[in-house]
Amino acid sequence: MERVEKTVFISYRRTNVPWALAIFQNLTQFGYDVFFDFSGVNSGDFETVILENIRARAHFLVILTPSALEKCGEPGDWLRREIEVAFESRRNIVPLMLEGFDFGAPKIAGQLTGTLAPLKQYNGLNIPADYFMEAMGRLRDRYLNVALDAVSQPASFPARQAAAQQQEVASTAPAVAEEELTAQQWFERGLNAVDLDEQIRFYSKAIGLKPDFAEAFNNRGNARYNKGDFDDAIADYNEAIRLKPDYAKAFSNRGNVRRCKGDLDGAIADCDDAIRLKPDYAGAFNNRGYVRYLKGDLGGALKDCSEAVRLDPNRAATFDSLGSIRRAMGDLEGALRDYSEAIRLKPDLAEAIANREGLLKIMSDTAKNLPSSDDNL
Predict the structure, then answer these.
(1) What is the pLDDT of residue 377?
(2) Cα(332)–Cα(338) distance, rounded to whole angstroms?
């Protein structure tokens, strides 16, 4: 006879850790053996710890927000890989849909392609912050209370040991308050807003409910940077870094603003910190390369942007930067190839379009002024 399993894996984006923790705390309270990567598993242990624990657990819960699937098209995206393994292992998959997530939304439907397409066929559960306990009751009683075959892929000892360590750390975390979950909802609204003032308002709401919300300070800094409010943007990045000293993205973003304010040495120092904290951070290499280009260090700029391309060959902005560097070095054919690749990757990248048009004009004018073969007679 089939039995009801009480082993669960929670898949989520790191920005949604309060939701994952709240779900962990609730299910653990009701006797479920729950694994989620709370404190961060090293990328080298991903196959052993994460994937083995998916295969060894009966239920797979994936937390879905309007922005959760955006990075699933990137090489090596963990969330996509986790979902793929849950499909392959035939786990009981339950999409947990937070405010604003809708399988039918055009943007989300466009992300559910290829190996992720089957996800929209699963019966999901809406999880509102103000009815969290009621939603958890439905999850336990209706979605997890199903008869399943015994799990046939037990995890290895290292995977079980890592799971126990993550559970121990998560178990000591304070209970997640409703205000923190509501702050997450405001944060998601900010991610999906187009108007910059709306973004600032939503992130400010999130910060008001959760004053230590480093990601909200960083994103509000981005919105202020895009509005040209550089001083307030730097203040937000400073606070994000104070709250989260290993926040590589906030260092890189602050470097961008310092570059715009003319503080090129400060910008390079911030990029250095970002790369020190995250050595595979393609965006920080690109940003530092651009600052070096502005300082006239073309060799250093070329090296940094080439490394950014190696780390992320699909980043259009980096190819645009490379084009400008090669152009300054006199390699016009190489610059043309880079601008063209940037446009191929992102056909509406205005900077690359303008740069290529300008370069083509220069190359055309140069060709017209070359002496003909008759002139050499």
Answers:
(1) 40
(2) 10
363 burial level (CB within 10 Å; 0-12, 13-18, 19+): middle
| Inside any domain, residue 135 | yes
Query: Do 231 and 300 lie in a common domain?
Result: no
State the Cα–Cα distance between residues 89 and 115, nearest whole angstrom. 14
- Residue type for position 376: N
Q: Mean pLDDT in the chain?
A: 88
- 3-state SS, one letter per residue, for the chain: CCEECCEEEEECCHHHHHHHHHHHHHHHHCCCEEECCCCCCCHHHHHHHHHHHHHCCCEEEEEECCCCCCCCCCCCCHHHHHHHHHHHHCCEEEEEECCCCCCCCHHHHHHCCHHHHHHHHCCCEECCHHHHHHHHHHHHHHHCCCEECCCCCCCCHHHHHHHHHHHHHHHCCCCCCHHHHHHHHHHHHHHHCCCHHHHHHHHHHHHHHCCCCHHHHHHHHHHHHHCCCHHHHHHHHHHHHHHCCCCHHHHHHHHHHHHHCCCHHHHHHHHHHHHHHCCCCHHHHHHHHHHHHHCCCHHHHHHHHHHHHHHCCCCHHHHHHHHHHHHHCCCHHHHHHHHHHHHHHCCCCHHHHHHHHHHHHHHHHHHHHCCCCHHHC
Q: Compute the distance between CA of residue 203 and CA of residue 190 in angstroms, rounded to an integer.
A: 6
Tell which of 279, 301, 318 closes a domain.
Answer: 279
Q: How many CA atoms lie within 13 A of 45 on its CB side?
A: 14
Q: Supply the pTM of this predicted model.
A: 0.75
Domain edge (last residue) among 106, 138, 171 = 171
Residue 274 shares a structural domain with residue 307: no
Residues 104-127, mean pLDDT to the nearest whole number: 87
Range of the domain at 107: 3-171
Structural domains counted in the chain: 3
Residue 71's pLDDT is 83
